Amino acid sequence: MEQVLDIYKRPYDKNFPIVCMDESPKQMIKETRVPLPMKPGSEMKIDFEYERCGVANVFIASEPLKGKRFVEVTERRTKIDWAMFIKKIADEWYKKAEKIILVMDNLSTHKASALYEAFEPEEAKRIWDRFEFVYTPKHGSWLNMAEIELNVLMGQCLNRRIGNMTIMTEEVKAWENYRNNKKAIINWQFTTQDARVKLKRLYPTIID
User: Fold this and answer.
1) pLDDT 10s digits, 5-42
2) Which uninterrupted H or E stretch holds 104?
3) Is residue 64 part of a domain?
4) Of 124, 208, 172, the residue nearest 26 (C-alpha)
């Protein structure tokens, strides 16, 4: 925990950007009846029945100090999907960085082995060397600022019924552009000193 909090104290450095990464499933839901539009004196009416259309996965990479985020919707959330997303971070979005500090949780797919399953060894090692991977502790996913950004995405964009990946991808891309144009940053306030006071119970007791 303290390792993550120390990283969040670092000043912005374009050569060593701090990027937080997270992912979440999203149920695709299709309307079975056309909603009645809003009109004066009456809200939009949506039928309670719906049709389930499978589950998509949403990857997000957020750079809190710069106010940038990149989102991708995929059909699955396998090791290969994660590896492809990591490659985009390295080669498209942060290709000029010397080393990318990537904060993420300890999900079983977030491992070096995933890159070796997706790419030839030389390519996997090249991508791996572009990163310094920093894992949040078990039960400490709240330390990942990408989780905050993902909650904003769910609340502002994906809080309604969307029936297919094409529409979901278009909506997510529009939200991403909107947030990036605003340069919306995350003002992280929780420090190591705060943790030692508020989470004192998590620290071992030293007996003199």
Assistant:
1) 999 999 999 999 999 999 999 988 776 666 667 778 77
2) strand 100-104
3) yes
4) 172
Query: What's the number of domains the chain is made of?
Result: 1
**8 Å CB contact between 4 and 146:** no
Domain ranges, residue 108 = 2-30+48-196
Nearest C-alpha neighbor of 65 from the set 5, 10, 12, 7: 12
CA 121 to chain centre: 26
Residue 202 lies in a domain: no
184: which 2 tokens? 């919306």
Q: Is the pLDDT of residue 117 over 90?
A: yes
Write the CATH number for 56: 3.30.420.10
* HSE-CB for 58 with a 13 A CA cutoff: 28
Show the tokens assigned to 137. Answer: 């502790």
Entry field: residues in the chain: 208
Torsion of CA 202, 204, 207, 208, to 10 degrees: -100
HSE value, Cβ hemisphere, 13 Å, CA-based, for 145 = 26
Query: Using only C-alpha atoms, what is the Rg of the chain?
Result: 20
Check pLDDT > 70 for residue 118: yes
Residue 160 is assigned to a structural domain of this protein: yes
Determine, yes or no, domain membership for 172: yes
